[in-house]
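TEACHING EXERCISE
Course module: macromolecular assemblies
Task: Read the component lines below, then compare them to the predicted structure of the full complex.
Student: A.B.
Group: 4
Components provided:
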Amino acid sequence: MPARLRLRAVHSRCSAALMALAILLAGCATVPPDAGHNPRDPFERVNRHIDAFNDGFDRYFMKPVAKGYVYAVPPGIRLCISSGFSNLGEVRNAVNDLLQFKPLGAATDTGRLVVNSTMGVAGCFDIATRMGLEQRNQDFGLTLAHWGAGTGPYIVIPFLGPSDVRDAIGKVPDSYLSPIAYVSPVKDRYILYGVSFIDLRALLLDATSLVDQAALDRYQFVRDAYFQRRLSQQYEGNPPPPAEDDDSGESGPGGGAPKGPPGQPTPPDKR
Amino acid sequence: MATVGTIHRTVRACAGRSLVCLLFLSALACSAGSAVAAMLPADTAPDALVQTVSSQVLDDIRGDKALRSGDIEKLQKLIDDKVAPYVDFERMTRLAVGKGWRTATAEQRDALMREFRTLLVRTYSGALSHVTDHQVKMRPFHAQPADTDVTVHTQVAPSAGDPIQLDYRLEKTDAGWKIYDLNILGISLVENFKNSFASQINQGGVDGLIKSLTDRNRQLAASNGKG
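Instructor-supplied answer key:
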Protein backbone atom coordinates (compact mmCIF):
# COMPACT_ATOMS: atom_id res chain seq x y z
CA MET A 1 0.00 0.00 0.00
CA PRO A 2 1.58 3.20 -1.17
CA ALA A 3 0.36 5.26 1.80
CA ARG A 4 1.97 2.89 4.28
CA LEU A 5 5.24 2.87 2.34
CA ARG A 6 5.26 6.66 2.25
CA LEU A 7 4.68 6.75 5.99
CA ARG A 8 7.54 4.35 6.53
CA ALA A 9 9.88 6.47 4.40
CA VAL A 10 8.98 9.59 6.38
CA HIS A 11 9.37 7.67 9.62
CA SER A 12 12.83 6.38 8.72
CA ARG A 13 13.99 9.83 7.64
CA CYS A 14 12.70 11.23 10.93
CA SER A 15 14.50 8.61 12.97
CA ALA A 16 17.72 9.23 11.09
CA ALA A 17 17.43 12.94 11.79
CA LEU A 18 16.62 12.35 15.45
CA MET A 19 19.56 10.03 15.77
CA ALA A 20 21.92 12.55 14.24
CA LEU A 21 20.60 15.21 16.61
CA ALA A 22 21.04 12.91 19.60
CA ILE A 23 24.62 12.15 18.63
CA LEU A 24 25.41 15.84 18.16
CA LEU A 25 23.92 16.71 21.54
CA ALA A 26 25.77 13.84 23.17
CA GLY A 27 28.98 15.36 21.85
CA CYS A 28 28.88 17.97 24.60
CA ALA A 29 30.70 16.32 27.48
CA THR A 30 30.89 17.44 31.09
CA VAL A 31 34.58 18.11 31.57
CA PRO A 32 35.83 17.97 35.19
CA PRO A 33 37.79 20.98 36.50
CA ASP A 34 41.08 19.08 36.78
CA ALA A 35 41.02 17.96 33.14
CA GLY A 36 44.36 17.90 31.34
CA HIS A 37 46.52 17.53 34.45
CA ASN A 38 47.12 13.85 33.90
CA PRO A 39 50.49 13.69 32.12
CA ARG A 40 49.27 10.79 30.00
CA ASP A 41 46.25 12.71 28.79
CA PRO A 42 47.11 16.32 27.93
CA PHE A 43 44.30 16.45 25.37
CA GLU A 44 41.70 15.46 27.92
CA ARG A 45 39.25 18.24 27.12
CA VAL A 46 39.09 17.40 23.42
CA ASN A 47 39.18 13.67 24.12
CA ARG A 48 36.18 13.92 26.43
CA HIS A 49 34.14 15.63 23.74
CA ILE A 50 35.06 13.07 21.11
CA ASP A 51 34.36 10.32 23.63
CA ALA A 52 30.92 11.77 24.33
CA PHE A 53 30.25 11.79 20.60
CA ASN A 54 31.40 8.17 20.30
CA ASP A 55 29.21 7.25 23.25
CA GLY A 56 26.20 8.78 21.54
CA PHE A 57 26.99 6.98 18.30
CA ASP A 58 27.41 3.77 20.24
CA ARG A 59 24.28 4.15 22.32
CA TYR A 60 21.94 5.15 19.50
CA PHE A 61 23.43 3.14 16.67
CA MET A 62 26.14 0.54 17.32
CA LYS A 63 24.65 -0.99 20.44
CA PRO A 64 21.14 -1.44 19.07
CA VAL A 65 22.53 -2.86 15.84
CA ALA A 66 24.79 -5.24 17.76
CA LYS A 67 21.93 -6.32 20.00
CA GLY A 68 19.78 -6.90 16.95
CA TYR A 69 22.60 -8.93 15.42
CA VAL A 70 22.81 -11.08 18.56
CA TYR A 71 19.06 -11.52 18.60
CA ALA A 72 18.66 -12.32 14.92
CA VAL A 73 21.70 -14.47 14.20
CA PRO A 74 22.01 -17.90 15.88
CA PRO A 75 25.04 -18.34 18.17
CA GLY A 76 26.63 -20.99 15.97
CA ILE A 77 26.70 -18.70 12.97
CA ARG A 78 27.91 -15.76 15.04
CA LEU A 79 30.76 -17.91 16.33
CA CYS A 80 31.64 -18.85 12.78
CA ILE A 81 31.69 -15.20 11.71
CA SER A 82 33.82 -14.17 14.73
CA SER A 83 36.29 -16.95 14.18
CA GLY A 84 36.46 -16.14 10.48
CA PHE A 85 37.43 -12.51 11.12
CA SER A 86 39.83 -13.57 13.85
CA ASN A 87 41.47 -15.94 11.38
CA LEU A 88 42.00 -13.12 8.91
CA GLY A 89 43.84 -11.25 11.65
CA GLU A 90 46.49 -13.97 11.83
CA VAL A 91 48.29 -12.38 8.89
CA ARG A 92 48.74 -9.21 10.90
CA ASN A 93 49.81 -11.26 13.94
CA ALA A 94 52.39 -13.23 11.94
CA VAL A 95 53.94 -10.20 10.24
CA ASN A 96 54.20 -8.28 13.48
CA ASP A 97 55.64 -11.26 15.33
CA LEU A 98 58.34 -11.43 12.65
CA LEU A 99 58.99 -7.69 12.97
CA GLN A 100 59.49 -8.25 16.70
CA PHE A 101 61.88 -11.12 16.02
CA LYS A 102 59.54 -13.66 17.62
CA PRO A 103 59.86 -16.58 15.20
CA LEU A 104 58.03 -19.02 17.45
CA GLY A 105 55.10 -16.63 17.66
CA ALA A 106 55.10 -16.09 13.91
CA ALA A 107 55.16 -19.85 13.36
CA THR A 108 52.19 -20.26 15.71
CA ASP A 109 50.24 -17.58 13.85
CA THR A 110 51.02 -19.07 10.47
CA GLY A 111 50.13 -22.53 11.75
CA ARG A 112 46.81 -21.23 13.05
CA LEU A 113 46.06 -19.55 9.73
CA VAL A 114 46.80 -22.67 7.74
CA VAL A 115 44.98 -25.11 10.04
CA ASN A 116 41.90 -23.00 10.57
CA SER A 117 41.59 -21.97 6.94
CA THR A 118 41.75 -25.54 5.71
CA MET A 119 40.54 -27.93 8.38
CA GLY A 120 38.58 -25.16 10.06
CA VAL A 121 36.73 -24.26 6.86
CA ALA A 122 37.84 -20.69 6.16
CA GLY A 123 38.33 -19.98 9.86
CA CYS A 124 34.81 -20.98 10.89
CA PHE A 125 36.03 -23.60 13.37
CA ASP A 126 38.97 -22.97 15.65
CA ILE A 127 40.78 -26.29 15.36
CA ALA A 128 44.19 -24.77 15.98
CA THR A 129 43.60 -23.94 19.65
CA ARG A 130 42.66 -27.54 20.34
CA MET A 131 45.91 -28.55 18.68
CA GLY A 132 47.85 -26.39 21.11
CA LEU A 133 48.44 -23.37 18.86
CA GLU A 134 47.22 -20.56 21.05
CA GLN A 135 45.69 -17.34 19.83
CA ARG A 136 48.12 -14.44 19.88
CA ASN A 137 47.46 -10.74 19.49
CA GLN A 138 50.04 -8.64 17.74
CA ASP A 139 49.71 -5.40 15.90
CA PHE A 140 52.01 -2.67 14.66
CA GLY A 141 51.45 -0.55 17.75
CA LEU A 142 52.88 -3.38 19.85
CA THR A 143 55.76 -3.75 17.37
CA LEU A 144 56.59 -0.08 17.89
CA ALA A 145 56.32 -0.65 21.65
CA HIS A 146 58.64 -3.63 21.44
CA TRP A 147 61.28 -1.53 19.77
CA GLY A 148 61.05 1.12 22.46
CA ALA A 149 58.37 3.56 21.40
CA GLY A 150 56.44 5.08 24.28
CA THR A 151 52.69 5.26 24.03
CA GLY A 152 52.43 9.00 23.57
CA PRO A 153 49.37 10.87 24.78
CA TYR A 154 45.95 9.28 25.02
CA ILE A 155 43.69 10.13 22.13
CA VAL A 156 40.11 9.18 21.37
CA ILE A 157 39.51 8.50 17.71
CA PRO A 158 36.05 9.35 16.35
CA PHE A 159 34.05 6.14 15.85
CA LEU A 160 37.00 3.89 16.64
CA GLY A 161 37.36 4.83 20.29
CA PRO A 162 40.29 4.85 22.71
CA SER A 163 43.84 4.82 21.44
CA ASP A 164 47.15 6.54 21.94
CA VAL A 165 49.40 8.25 19.42
CA ARG A 166 51.64 5.23 18.92
CA ASP A 167 48.79 2.79 18.37
CA ALA A 168 46.87 5.18 16.15
CA ILE A 169 49.94 5.46 13.90
CA GLY A 170 50.23 1.67 14.04
CA LYS A 171 46.77 1.21 12.61
CA VAL A 172 47.95 2.49 9.24
CA PRO A 173 50.41 -0.29 8.30
CA ASP A 174 48.09 -2.83 9.91
CA SER A 175 45.31 -1.86 7.53
CA TYR A 176 47.48 -3.16 4.66
CA LEU A 177 47.83 -6.50 6.45
CA SER A 178 44.15 -7.23 6.55
CA PRO A 179 42.98 -9.47 3.68
CA ILE A 180 39.71 -7.53 3.66
CA ALA A 181 41.57 -4.52 2.27
CA TYR A 182 42.15 -6.39 -0.98
CA VAL A 183 38.56 -7.41 -1.59
CA SER A 184 36.95 -5.86 -4.65
CA PRO A 185 34.47 -4.41 -5.46
CA VAL A 186 34.90 -1.69 -2.87
CA LYS A 187 31.27 -2.01 -1.83
CA ASP A 188 31.84 -5.60 -0.64
CA ARG A 189 34.93 -4.47 1.23
CA TYR A 190 32.95 -1.94 3.23
CA ILE A 191 30.22 -4.48 3.90
CA LEU A 192 32.87 -6.79 5.37
CA TYR A 193 34.33 -3.97 7.48
CA GLY A 194 30.83 -3.16 8.68
CA VAL A 195 30.06 -6.73 9.66
CA SER A 196 33.40 -7.09 11.47
CA PHE A 197 32.63 -3.90 13.40
CA ILE A 198 29.21 -5.17 14.43
CA ASP A 199 30.64 -8.57 15.33
CA LEU A 200 33.23 -6.95 17.58
CA ARG A 201 30.62 -4.73 19.21
CA ALA A 202 28.40 -7.75 19.86
CA LEU A 203 31.29 -9.55 21.56
CA LEU A 204 31.84 -6.55 23.83
CA LEU A 205 28.20 -5.99 24.88
CA ASP A 206 28.61 -7.62 28.29
CA ALA A 207 31.90 -5.90 29.02
CA THR A 208 30.58 -2.44 28.21
CA SER A 209 27.50 -2.84 30.38
CA LEU A 210 29.81 -3.86 33.23
CA VAL A 211 31.94 -0.75 32.75
CA ASP A 212 28.85 1.43 32.72
CA GLN A 213 27.83 0.07 36.10
CA ALA A 214 31.18 -0.15 37.84
CA ALA A 215 32.88 3.02 36.73
CA LEU A 216 32.38 6.26 38.60
CA ASP A 217 33.77 8.10 35.57
CA ARG A 218 33.49 6.02 32.43
CA TYR A 219 35.94 8.07 30.37
CA GLN A 220 38.66 7.71 33.01
CA PHE A 221 37.96 4.02 33.58
CA VAL A 222 38.29 3.29 29.87
CA ARG A 223 41.43 5.40 29.54
CA ASP A 224 43.22 3.69 32.42
CA ALA A 225 42.02 0.27 31.31
CA TYR A 226 43.30 0.98 27.79
CA PHE A 227 46.83 1.76 28.94
CA GLN A 228 46.90 -1.24 31.28
CA ARG A 229 45.63 -3.53 28.57
CA ARG A 230 48.24 -2.38 26.06
CA LEU A 231 51.02 -2.81 28.58
CA SER A 232 49.82 -6.31 29.32
CA GLN A 233 49.67 -7.14 25.60
CA GLN A 234 53.15 -5.76 25.09
CA TYR A 235 54.49 -8.20 27.67
CA GLU A 236 52.19 -10.99 26.48
CA GLY A 237 50.27 -11.25 29.72
CA ASN A 238 53.12 -10.75 32.18
CA PRO A 239 53.64 -7.03 32.57
CA PRO A 240 55.98 -5.78 35.28
CA PRO A 241 53.93 -5.27 38.46
CA PRO A 242 53.09 -1.60 39.08
CA ALA A 243 55.07 0.23 41.76
CA GLU A 244 52.69 -0.23 44.65
CA ASP A 245 51.89 3.10 46.10
CA ASP A 246 50.66 1.60 49.35
CA ASP A 247 50.60 4.63 51.60
CA SER A 248 48.84 2.98 54.49
CA GLY A 249 52.04 1.99 56.23
CA GLU A 250 52.39 -1.55 54.99
CA SER A 251 55.36 -2.22 52.70
CA GLY A 252 54.14 -3.16 49.26
CA PRO A 253 54.63 -6.74 48.10
CA GLY A 254 56.14 -7.53 44.77
CA GLY A 255 58.26 -10.54 45.45
CA GLY A 256 56.76 -13.81 44.43
CA ALA A 257 54.54 -12.50 41.65
CA PRO A 258 55.75 -14.37 38.58
CA LYS A 259 57.16 -12.00 36.01
CA GLY A 260 57.80 -13.13 32.47
CA PRO A 261 60.93 -11.85 30.71
CA PRO A 262 59.88 -8.96 28.49
CA GLY A 263 60.18 -9.19 24.76
CA GLN A 264 60.71 -12.90 24.49
CA PRO A 265 58.32 -15.28 22.83
CA THR A 266 56.23 -17.29 25.25
CA PRO A 267 56.04 -20.89 24.04
CA PRO A 268 52.45 -22.07 23.85
CA ASP A 269 52.83 -24.70 26.52
CA LYS A 270 54.10 -22.37 29.20
CA ARG A 271 52.78 -19.15 30.68
CA MET B 1 23.26 -16.41 62.81
CA ALA B 2 27.00 -16.17 62.40
CA THR B 3 27.07 -14.52 59.02
CA VAL B 4 29.94 -13.86 56.68
CA GLY B 5 29.90 -10.30 57.97
CA THR B 6 30.59 -11.46 61.49
CA ILE B 7 33.43 -13.62 60.33
CA HIS B 8 34.81 -10.74 58.30
CA ARG B 9 34.76 -8.44 61.30
CA THR B 10 36.41 -11.11 63.38
CA VAL B 11 39.18 -11.55 60.82
CA ARG B 12 39.86 -7.83 61.00
CA ALA B 13 39.83 -7.96 64.77
CA CYS B 14 42.47 -10.68 64.64
CA ALA B 15 45.10 -8.10 63.86
CA GLY B 16 47.09 -9.37 66.80
CA ARG B 17 47.05 -12.86 65.27
CA SER B 18 46.78 -14.55 68.62
CA LEU B 19 46.11 -18.26 68.85
CA VAL B 20 42.95 -17.68 70.87
CA CYS B 21 41.62 -15.46 68.14
CA LEU B 22 42.29 -18.12 65.51
CA LEU B 23 40.56 -20.80 67.56
CA PHE B 24 37.57 -18.55 68.05
CA LEU B 25 37.51 -17.84 64.32
CA SER B 26 37.57 -21.50 63.38
CA ALA B 27 34.86 -22.26 65.94
CA LEU B 28 32.80 -19.47 64.47
CA ALA B 29 33.34 -20.79 60.97
CA CYS B 30 32.27 -24.27 62.05
CA SER B 31 29.15 -23.01 63.75
CA ALA B 32 28.12 -20.76 60.88
CA GLY B 33 25.89 -23.36 59.33
CA SER B 34 25.30 -23.87 55.65
CA ALA B 35 26.42 -20.37 54.65
CA VAL B 36 30.10 -21.17 55.12
CA ALA B 37 29.95 -24.86 55.98
CA ALA B 38 32.07 -25.63 52.95
CA MET B 39 34.76 -23.08 53.80
CA LEU B 40 38.14 -24.29 52.69
CA PRO B 41 40.84 -24.98 55.28
CA ALA B 42 43.31 -22.17 55.88
CA ASP B 43 46.23 -24.13 54.45
CA THR B 44 44.63 -24.58 51.02
CA ALA B 45 47.07 -23.67 48.27
CA PRO B 46 46.16 -20.49 46.39
CA ASP B 47 45.67 -22.12 42.99
CA ALA B 48 43.53 -24.88 44.50
CA LEU B 49 41.50 -22.22 46.31
CA VAL B 50 40.84 -20.24 43.12
CA GLN B 51 39.95 -23.37 41.20
CA THR B 52 37.58 -24.71 43.86
CA VAL B 53 35.82 -21.39 44.40
CA SER B 54 35.39 -20.61 40.69
CA SER B 55 34.10 -24.06 39.83
CA GLN B 56 31.77 -24.07 42.85
CA VAL B 57 30.31 -20.70 41.91
CA LEU B 58 29.89 -21.60 38.24
CA ASP B 59 28.31 -24.95 39.12
CA ASP B 60 25.90 -23.23 41.48
CA ILE B 61 24.88 -20.76 38.81
CA ARG B 62 24.45 -23.44 36.17
CA GLY B 63 22.39 -25.59 38.52
CA ASP B 64 19.92 -22.89 39.57
CA LYS B 65 17.38 -21.47 37.15
CA ALA B 66 16.94 -18.19 39.02
CA LEU B 67 20.68 -17.57 39.09
CA ARG B 68 21.06 -18.43 35.42
CA SER B 69 18.39 -15.96 34.43
CA GLY B 70 20.21 -13.16 36.28
CA ASP B 71 18.37 -12.75 39.60
CA ILE B 72 20.65 -10.06 41.03
CA GLU B 73 19.65 -10.55 44.69
CA LYS B 74 20.38 -14.25 44.58
CA LEU B 75 23.65 -13.70 42.71
CA GLN B 76 24.80 -11.20 45.30
CA LYS B 77 23.94 -13.63 48.07
CA LEU B 78 25.89 -16.31 46.24
CA ILE B 79 28.95 -14.09 46.02
CA ASP B 80 28.61 -13.03 49.65
CA ASP B 81 28.43 -16.64 50.75
CA LYS B 82 30.83 -18.38 48.45
CA VAL B 83 33.39 -15.83 47.28
CA ALA B 84 33.57 -13.00 49.81
CA PRO B 85 35.13 -15.16 52.58
CA TYR B 86 38.20 -15.49 50.40
CA VAL B 87 38.51 -11.84 49.48
CA ASP B 88 40.43 -9.30 51.52
CA PHE B 89 38.14 -6.31 50.98
CA GLU B 90 40.05 -4.23 53.46
CA ARG B 91 43.30 -4.52 51.59
CA MET B 92 41.55 -3.99 48.28
CA THR B 93 39.90 -0.80 49.51
CA ARG B 94 43.06 0.40 51.20
CA LEU B 95 45.10 -0.03 48.00
CA ALA B 96 42.42 1.57 45.86
CA VAL B 97 41.98 4.58 48.11
CA GLY B 98 45.74 5.07 48.40
CA LYS B 99 46.97 8.20 50.17
CA GLY B 100 43.49 9.14 51.32
CA TRP B 101 43.34 6.10 53.58
CA ARG B 102 45.91 7.49 55.99
CA THR B 103 43.94 10.62 56.70
CA ALA B 104 40.57 8.88 56.76
CA THR B 105 38.82 8.36 60.08
CA ALA B 106 37.65 4.93 61.21
CA GLU B 107 34.05 5.68 60.20
CA GLN B 108 35.19 6.87 56.79
CA ARG B 109 37.26 3.72 56.33
CA ASP B 110 34.30 1.57 57.28
CA ALA B 111 32.06 3.48 54.91
CA LEU B 112 34.59 3.17 52.09
CA MET B 113 34.96 -0.56 52.60
CA ARG B 114 31.24 -1.09 52.80
CA GLU B 115 30.39 0.92 49.69
CA PHE B 116 33.28 -0.41 47.62
CA ARG B 117 32.36 -3.96 48.53
CA THR B 118 28.71 -3.36 47.63
CA LEU B 119 29.72 -1.83 44.31
CA LEU B 120 32.00 -4.72 43.41
CA VAL B 121 29.55 -7.42 44.44
CA ARG B 122 26.69 -5.75 42.62
CA THR B 123 28.49 -5.16 39.36
CA TYR B 124 30.26 -8.47 39.20
CA SER B 125 27.20 -10.48 40.15
CA GLY B 126 25.59 -8.96 37.07
CA ALA B 127 28.56 -10.09 35.00
CA LEU B 128 28.44 -13.59 36.44
CA SER B 129 25.03 -14.33 34.99
CA HIS B 130 26.59 -13.99 31.52
CA VAL B 131 29.36 -16.51 32.04
CA THR B 132 27.45 -19.73 32.55
CA ASP B 133 28.55 -21.12 29.22
CA HIS B 134 32.15 -20.13 29.77
CA GLN B 135 34.84 -22.64 30.56
CA VAL B 136 37.39 -21.75 33.21
CA LYS B 137 40.86 -23.15 32.62
CA MET B 138 43.69 -22.95 35.13
CA ARG B 139 47.02 -21.83 33.69
CA PRO B 140 50.40 -23.03 34.98
CA PHE B 141 51.05 -21.72 38.46
CA HIS B 142 54.56 -20.64 39.33
CA ALA B 143 55.36 -19.72 42.91
CA GLN B 144 57.94 -20.58 45.53
CA PRO B 145 56.64 -22.37 48.66
CA ALA B 146 57.80 -19.46 50.80
CA ASP B 147 55.93 -16.79 48.79
CA THR B 148 53.29 -14.79 50.60
CA ASP B 149 52.05 -12.91 47.54
CA VAL B 150 51.17 -14.85 44.40
CA THR B 151 49.32 -14.50 41.14
CA VAL B 152 47.06 -17.31 39.95
CA HIS B 153 46.46 -17.25 36.21
CA THR B 154 43.21 -18.55 34.78
CA GLN B 155 41.59 -18.31 31.41
CA VAL B 156 37.91 -17.94 30.76
CA ALA B 157 36.84 -19.19 27.37
CA PRO B 158 33.54 -17.78 26.15
CA SER B 159 31.58 -19.55 23.47
CA ALA B 160 32.43 -16.82 20.95
CA GLY B 161 35.46 -14.57 20.85
CA ASP B 162 38.96 -14.79 22.21
CA PRO B 163 39.66 -16.37 25.61
CA ILE B 164 39.87 -13.89 28.45
CA GLN B 165 42.86 -13.85 30.72
CA LEU B 166 41.72 -13.62 34.34
CA ASP B 167 44.37 -13.39 37.05
CA TYR B 168 43.93 -13.31 40.80
CA ARG B 169 46.45 -11.79 43.17
CA LEU B 170 46.39 -13.45 46.55
CA GLU B 171 48.14 -12.72 49.79
CA LYS B 172 48.80 -15.15 52.59
CA THR B 173 47.10 -14.25 55.84
CA ASP B 174 46.60 -16.28 58.98
CA ALA B 175 43.09 -17.12 57.88
CA GLY B 176 44.43 -18.55 54.65
CA TRP B 177 45.05 -17.08 51.22
CA LYS B 178 42.93 -14.05 50.39
CA ILE B 179 42.26 -12.47 47.03
CA TYR B 180 43.07 -8.78 46.95
CA ASP B 181 43.13 -7.97 43.28
CA LEU B 182 41.55 -9.20 40.09
CA ASN B 183 43.13 -8.73 36.72
CA ILE B 184 41.01 -9.08 33.59
CA LEU B 185 42.80 -8.94 30.23
CA GLY B 186 45.68 -7.20 31.95
CA ILE B 187 43.45 -4.60 33.57
CA SER B 188 43.86 -4.59 37.32
CA LEU B 189 40.79 -3.80 39.38
CA VAL B 190 42.75 -2.09 42.13
CA GLU B 191 44.85 -0.02 39.70
CA ASN B 192 41.84 1.13 37.80
CA PHE B 193 39.79 2.08 40.81
CA LYS B 194 42.87 3.73 42.34
CA ASN B 195 43.00 6.31 39.57
CA SER B 196 39.27 6.78 39.70
CA PHE B 197 39.23 7.23 43.48
CA ALA B 198 42.21 9.60 43.40
CA SER B 199 40.36 11.87 41.03
CA GLN B 200 37.24 11.80 43.22
CA ILE B 201 39.30 12.58 46.32
CA ASN B 202 40.98 15.47 44.49
CA GLN B 203 37.60 16.93 43.71
CA GLY B 204 35.73 16.34 46.95
CA GLY B 205 37.95 14.70 49.54
CA VAL B 206 37.31 11.31 51.11
CA ASP B 207 33.73 12.32 51.91
CA GLY B 208 33.20 13.19 48.26
CA LEU B 209 34.40 9.72 47.30
CA ILE B 210 32.10 8.06 49.84
CA LYS B 211 29.20 10.08 48.51
CA SER B 212 29.94 9.10 44.87
CA LEU B 213 30.12 5.44 45.80
CA THR B 214 26.92 5.62 47.86
CA ASP B 215 25.09 7.41 45.06
CA ARG B 216 26.27 4.88 42.52
CA ASN B 217 25.18 1.98 44.70
CA ARG B 218 21.79 3.56 45.23
CA GLN B 219 21.45 4.07 41.49
CA LEU B 220 22.33 0.44 40.81
CA ALA B 221 19.93 -0.79 43.48
CA ALA B 222 17.13 1.23 41.94
CA SER B 223 17.76 -0.23 38.52
CA ASN B 224 18.25 -3.77 39.81
CA GLY B 225 17.75 -6.34 37.14
CA LYS B 226 17.54 -3.84 34.32
CA GLY B 227 20.66 -4.57 32.21
